[in-house]
Amino acid sequence: MATRLLFWKKEEEEAASDEAHAQPGILSDFILGSQDGLVNVLGVILGVAVGAQALSTDPIRIILAGGFAATFAESISMGAVAYTSTVARRDHYIAEVERERQEMVELPDRERDEVREILARWDFHGQELEDMLERIVAKPKAWLELMMAHELNLAPVDKGAARKSALLVGTAAIVGSLVPLLPFLFAGNDTIFSAILASLTVSAATLFVIGWYKARSTVGHPSKSGLQMALIGIASALAGFGIAFLVSGGAGA
Question: What does the domain layout of the chain look like in residue ranges?
Answer without folding.
Answer: 30-245
